[in-house]
Amino acid sequence: MLRRRWVDALVVVVVVLAFVLAPQAYSNETLLFQMMVYIALSQGVNILYGFTGYLPFGYVGFFGIGAYGASLLMLHLNWPPILALLGGGAIAVLLGLLLSPLLRLSGAYFAIASLAASQAVYLIVSNPALQNVTYGPYGIQLVSQFNPTLSYYVMVVILALTVAVVLYIRRSRFGTALQAMRDDPVSAAMAGVPVVRQRTFAWMISAAIAGLVGGAFAWQTSVFYPDAVFSLSISIFAIVFTLFGGAGTLLGPLFGSVVLYGMYNTIGISDPQYFQLIYGLLIILLVLFLPDGAASLLKRRGSHVL
Amino acid sequence: MSSDALLSVVGVEKSFGGFQALRGVNLEVPRGGALGLVGPNGSGKTTLINIISGIYAPTAGKVRFGGQDVTGRLPHQMSHLGVNRTFQVPKPFGSLTVRQNVEVALGHSRRSGRKTDDVLAFLDLGGLADREAASLNTAQQKLLDLGRALATDPKLLLVDELGAGLSPADLDLVAEKLNALRRDGITMLVVEHLMGFLGKVTDDVVVMNAGAEIFFGKLEAAAQDPKVVEVFLGG
Ligand SMILES: Nc1ncnc2c1ncn2[C@@H]1O[C@H](COP(=O)(O)OP(=O)(O)OP(=O)(O)O)[C@@H](O)[C@H]1O
Ligand SMILES: [Mg+2]
User: Fold this and answer.
1) Separation in Å, CA of B79 to nearest CA in chain A
2) Rounded CA separation A38/B210 (Å)
3) Residue B16 CA: which ligand 1 atom is closest?
4) Which has the closest alpha carbon to A76: A118, A131, A30?
């Protein structure tokens, strides 16, 4: 047990150090920031999909509402950025609570319904009629709060917390119960697990992560349009990174994000639409042929993947 | 209605769409007793177990457990109250180990003072403790279902065709175990097609046909009952 704690702590420290030191070696801080965004988002997807089996195509809705929630708290109420980020996370959790009845749906129906819900949120936020509140289609400008360095380090903290939460879930009774529910919800209920409550809880943790990350993204970017934070490709990326690396593990989604997002940035940035297509296809192939991702290749050889 | 019944099922009906799977079932299991439930395929035995364990809500009728109306309670609530079951087609947590399967149930039980190792040893699953449950054969998975149920320390155990597919030697072994559990005070409702097995583990039987009970009494008497004979031999 003690050794595991050390391993866990070490993983968190390594992730933090990597992103604290990386800007010294590599000057493109924006890319590093976005890589953190995707690692954290894919861990959020991981909590939901890896541990409960629900694939949230609408996950970007939480990211977008977090970005808007934090921005509007800064703009309308003059909240300091870090407090506003927490507010954005809280708003995402509220949205999660509101949408929790979707968890009654299964499989593909849930995936589609969550997607529809995220698009509904997008349409509300970007609606010109709400211009006084959300600035509608004209987007957000946080110029006076612009602070790329501080927002970068805040994102490191959010990432570290996310990794720690996933590690905790993996080790805890809660995580085992989630996996039991994924394998067989009826048996889990008979074993005494309050299935709906636990699944909703996982969903809200996952929403909180996306909300915080969205807020950090808004702060870092400081000028953005609604479609930038509600783009379906954000969901697709987070899902494909998770599936590619291996849902249900910690290192899988981390590995998937670094490799695939890195690839996207080196070769895909000039023609992003192809990457959406390729990654969309990759999701289908992975779900069909390698549902447990790259990590399962190692596991087949008998290695344990954290 | 006798006051020492641990379980009473009163006029329970269940419809799936237009199809009526249960048409007003009545039965009682006395505290500490073991009631057999037999009937042809599709007569509604599993559906009744699903209703008692909270997986389905009945369309009409009542389920009483320990004198309390528990109709429509959710499965995890029934589990916490002390009602548990096995599944006709076993339902393990396939990606978890055998040990973890039992631990999930132990960890979420409100009542249990049992230990994982004791449960596994009782069911001769100790040697498989670290195996992934998906890799067990059907008979082992059924025992694991039983182990998970026992981990919650049930007062009432609903057993759905635990014997099907077992070798005669294993059947005797499982019958022994059910009887040991009964001696420990667990009340049982046992669904089974194998009459020899049923005779070993139950006192009385209820015979069901087409969603209603048609006989209650001793197993030997059932074999003499014209209605039962007609149902089983085809009238
Ligand atoms: N979820 C369901 N939806 C629709 N019909 C169902 C459902 N569950 C059971 N039934 C139907 O209800 C009837 C009773 O089924 P049940 O499984 O209870 O029978 P059984 O007595 O357990 O049979 P067996 O001995 O084959 O296990 C069957 O006709 C079955 O098809
Ligand atoms: Mg049945």
Assistant:
1) 5
2) 56
3) 4
4) A131
